[in-house]
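Project outcomes to date are best conveyed with an example. Our students and postdoctoral researchers have been running inverse folding experiments weekly, and each run begins with a structure described purely in tokens. The record below, which covers 267 residues, was selected by the lab manager from last quarter's runs and is presented without edits.
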């Protein structure tokens, strides 16, 4: 009789000890331990730009994992910087937006209306002709700095397609674009902007490296290199290279005229 009681008591003690140890299991490595309230250790709220694999409250009725993702913007709202292409470019931006936000500051959040396809590449080349920023000494200096960081290693500091990877390393898999060639000099600004946004051949996109204004500053520096190779002027005082980019003093007065003339320099 005492033996049976001892067995029962020992079993109860073992079960109690196991439950106590399990309920107080410490966290370690990828194991969070046991939580009294689940949302104390793992938020069940949606977090912007976060992919959360936390198990609880992440599965729908069909058994598929629901990842926490950024929500869609409120219907009808317009993001800051939306009018960036509306000021000087003839890219398709609603007239209402142009009028309502004519004085809005461009900040790099400007949407891009062209997919990464050859069809849209051609459309961007035909649509985007005018540089929305006037040529200034500051923009050219910053454009040169950015170009040497991101572009010069392949395209060359002079835009001749002979950067370090091609000239010295000799292992580059493809010849980079030669910006000083007649083909690129006569190309519209859309050809450059599209390549920055989506990349081309072995070149990847630089959309996450350069802000909206910085992309155009890089393009301005490329134009300056082209002008230098042809003995032409492209600076804050004068532009004899094309009719789509403006010096600061003529950006407002020449904008309308250049819209009709820009087709002669864009291909």
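After processing, the design step wrote out the following sequence:
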């Amino acid at each position: 009789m005492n033996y049976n009681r001892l067995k029962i008591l020992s079993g109860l003690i073992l079960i109690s000890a196991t439950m106590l140890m399990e309920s107080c299991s410490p966290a370690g490595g990828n194991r969070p331990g046991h939580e009294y309230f689940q949302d104390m250790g793992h938020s069940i709220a949606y977090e912007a730009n976060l992919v959360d694999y936390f198990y609880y409250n992440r599965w729908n009725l069909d058994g598929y994992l629901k990842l926490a993702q950024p929500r869609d913007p409120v219907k009808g709202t317009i993001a800051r910087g939306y009018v960036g292409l509306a000021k000087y470019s003839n890219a398709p931006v609603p007239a209402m937006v142009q009028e309502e936000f004519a004085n809005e500051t461009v900040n790099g959040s400007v949407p891009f209306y062209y997919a990464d396809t050859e069809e849209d590449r051609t459309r961007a080349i035909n649509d985007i002709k005018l540089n929305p920023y006037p040529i200034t000494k500051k923009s050219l200096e910053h454009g040169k700095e950015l170009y040497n960081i991101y572009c010069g290693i392949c395209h060359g500091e002079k835009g001749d397609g002979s950067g370090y990877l091609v000239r010295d390393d000799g292992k580059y898999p493809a010849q980079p674009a030669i910006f000083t060639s007649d083909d690129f000099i006569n190309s519209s600004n859309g050809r450059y902007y599209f390549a920055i946004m989506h990349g081309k051949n072995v070149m990847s996109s630089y959309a996450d490296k350069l802000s909206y204004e910085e992309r155009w500053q890089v393009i301005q520096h490329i134009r300056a290199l082209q002008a230098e190779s042809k003995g032409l002027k492209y600076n804050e005082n004068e532009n004899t290279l094309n009719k789509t980019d403006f010096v600061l003093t003529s950006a407002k007065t020449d904008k309308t005229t250049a819209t009709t003339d820009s087709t002669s320099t864009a291909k």
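Residues 2-23 form the longest helix (22 residues). Residues 83-102, 104-108, 251-267 have pLDDT under 50 and may be disordered. The training component of this project remains on track.
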